[in-house]
């Protein structure tokens, strides 16, 4: 056997390696994939942005869950994605690598982080119908915005390892599951028991029965009624664990519920209906449970704006006085955990980070090769343990302001709420909207659980950045108290 030295071309600097190679004139040719020989792989290779979108919706293992991809219309190009159980959904190409998903008759604009999460959940619900796939599944449980977490954390520079407290979240999740079981015993269906946060449940019931439901929970389950719980005009109940809150909400009046409307549509339609009811311009007051409020005068209409993300626009709802925009609202549902997918914003930073990691400047952070060309994993060179991601600390306030409020004029305000009828009060020509949280300036965000935190995590579709992807999360989804959750590692922006 003849030995030949081969220098492999890769994005990152590597050692030269010696391989054995049988003497031959030419390497065997790889058969070309055609539509006739392998229609699924042909479509995936022909349309790389489609493949990237399927990975975002169904992870790298999406092939285990789909059986076919078909073009239903040429312009705009509409793809039908057939799942293993013969259910299907649609992806429409909207230009600039952006897609709109249509799942069970409902549309989701995938450039919006919130709608991407909701589309992922809707597809998961489709997958639960019929025969299960013959797939091992992911290495660990994953949320609608997948994380790769294991139980340890480190910080730069290298020092003593400190395991984060995982018990607290585990206890809360167990308590939440226990409460759901108790509610199920009273006859409530899964679709009526809607977790909002790790310790709050929205219980969908007939509007006229809400007070009776509270009385039943108190008498039969020994829960505690607290009329001052925010988010409902009649308060809510606290489960026996002392932490889980259950808020009865009108089943027939839910945003995105039985009416099939999204959070944005529900709010826009409510404002339109109020203008029509009053017979002219109204004043819209948004009032947050955090003590912040803002007033918009002379509102004659509201329009959905979530699809217009050009130039870093963040507005989901535009409030109009005639044709003039008098207010911009960015809507975040109560359980939202992400601010934005930041590939474009931090493209230069990612290239710089990958280049620096290839030079091995950190004792406890580096890159290790995978079996996929040009794709690497974050790991600790000393212990050989993989990290699930890097938390980039010390973000510039200007960056954070741009992430939160965007470029809309007038400046967007951020509203955190999953709307239903109980959030609206009309007195004369003043419509007051009660929300969980309202942010009108960066001071309302920094230092709170909603503060933007940049995380670099693995994503094998990001070939230009060695399989790493930047996403901006909320602080509460990345930290448990002051400690890093999972086995991420912190790195200052100023050290890149």
Secondary structure blueprint with pairings:
Layout: E1 2-6, E2 17-21, H1 39-46, H2 48-58, E3 66-74, E4 77-83, E5 88-95, E6 98-103, E7 106-109, H3 113-127, E8 154-155, H4 167-185, E9 193-197, E10 200-205, H5 210-221, E11 224-226, E12 236-238, E13 245-250, H6 263-278, E14 282-288, E15 293-299, E16 301-304, E17 317-321, E18 324-332, E19 338-341, H7 347-358, E20 366-369, E21 376-379, E22 389-393, H8 397-405, E23 413-416, E24 424-427, E25 430-435, E26 437-439, E27 452-458, E28 468-474, E29 479-480, E30 483-484, E31 489-492
Parallel strand pairs: 8-31, 10-13, 14-25, 18-23, 22-31
Antiparallel strand pairs: 1-2, 3-4, 4-5, 5-6, 6-7, 9-10, 11-12, 12-13, 14-15, 16-17, 17-18, 19-28, 20-21, 22-27, 23-26, 24-25, 27-28, 29-30
Provide a short characterization of the protein structure.
By secondary structure, the chain is an alpha+beta fold.
Describe the protein in words.
The protein is of the alpha+beta class and 496 residues long. The chain has 4 domains: 39-127, no CATH class; 167-253, no CATH class; 280-335 and 400-444, no CATH class; 338-398 and 449-495, no CATH class. 21% of the residues lie in helices and 32% in strands. It contains 8 helices and 31 strands. It has helices at 39-46, 48-58, 113-127, 167-185, 210-221, 263-278, 347-358, 397-405; strands at 2-6, 17-21, 66-74, 77-83, 88-95, 98-103, 106-109, 154-155, 193-197, 200-205, 224-226, 236-238, 245-250, 282-288, 293-299, 301-304, 317-321, 324-332, 338-341, 366-369, 376-379, 389-393, 413-416, 424-427, 430-435, 437-439, 452-458, 468-474, 479-480, 483-484, 489-492. The strands form 8 sheets. A 6-stranded mixed β-sheet has the order 8-31-22-27-28-19. Mean pLDDT is 82; it is low at 5-28, 146-173 and 255-261.
């Amino acid at each position: 056997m003849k030995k030949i030295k081969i220098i492999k071309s890769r994005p990152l600097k590597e050692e030269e390696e010696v391989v054995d190679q049988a003497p031959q004139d030419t390497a065997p040719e790889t058969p070309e994939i055609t539509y006739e020989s392998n229609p699924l792989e042909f479509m995936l290779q022909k349309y790389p942005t489609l493949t990237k979108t399927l990975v975002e919706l169904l992870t790298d293992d999406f092939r285990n869950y789909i059986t076919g991809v078909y073009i239903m219309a040429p312009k705009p190009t509409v793809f039908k994605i057939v799942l293993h159980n013969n259910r299907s959904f649609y992806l429409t190409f909207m230009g600039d690598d952006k897609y709109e998903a249509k799942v069970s008759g409902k549309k989701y604009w995938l450039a919006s982080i919130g709608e991407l999460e909701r589309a992922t959940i809707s597809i998961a619900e489709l997958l639960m119908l019929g025969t299960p796939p013959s797939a091992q599944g992911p290495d660990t449980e994953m949320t609608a915005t997948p994380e790769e977490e294991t139980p340890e954390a480190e910080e730069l520079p290298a020092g003593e390892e400190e395991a984060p407290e995982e018990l607290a979240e585990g206890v809360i999740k167990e308590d939440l599951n226990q409460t759901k079981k108790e509610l199920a015993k009273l006859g409530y269906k899964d679709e009526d028991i809607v977790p909002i946060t790790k310790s709050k449940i929205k219980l969908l019931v007939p509007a006229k029965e809400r007070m009776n439901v509270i009385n039943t929970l108190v008498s039969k389950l020994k829960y505690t009624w607290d009329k001052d719980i925010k988010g409902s005009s009649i308060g809510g109940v606290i489960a026996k664990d002392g932490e889980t809150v259950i808020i009865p909400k009108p089943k027939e009046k839910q945003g995105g519920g039985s009416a099939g409307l999204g959070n944005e549509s529900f709010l826009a339609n409510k404002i339109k209906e109020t203008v029509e009811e009053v017979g002219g311009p109204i004043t819209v007051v948004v009032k947050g449970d955090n003590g912040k409020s803002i007033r918009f005068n002379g509102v004659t209409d509201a329009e959905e704006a979530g699809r217009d993300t050009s130039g870093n626009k963040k507005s989901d709802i535009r409030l109009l006085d005639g044709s003039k925009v008098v207010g911009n609202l960015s809507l975040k549902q109560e359980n939202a955990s992400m601010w934005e997918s930041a590939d474009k914003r931090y493209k230069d930073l990612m290239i710089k980070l990958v280049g620096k990691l290839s030079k091995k400047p950190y004792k406890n952070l580096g890159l290790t090769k995978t079996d996929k060309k040009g794709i690497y994993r974050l790991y600790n060179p000393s212990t050989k343990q993989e990290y699930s991601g890097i938390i980039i600390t010390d973000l510039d306030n200007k960056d954070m302001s741009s992430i939160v409020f965007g470029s809309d004029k007038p400046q967007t305000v951020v509203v955190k709420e999953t709307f239903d009828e109980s959030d609206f009060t009309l007195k004369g020509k003043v419509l007051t909207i009660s929300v969980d949280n309202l942010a009108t300036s960066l001071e309302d965000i920094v230092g709170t659980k909603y503060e933007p935190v940049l995380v670099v995590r693995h994503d094998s579709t990001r070939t230009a950045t060695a399989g790493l992807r930047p996403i901006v999360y909320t602080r509460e989804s990345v930290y448990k108290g002051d400690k890093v959750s999972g086995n991420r590692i912190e790195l200052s922006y100023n050290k890149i």
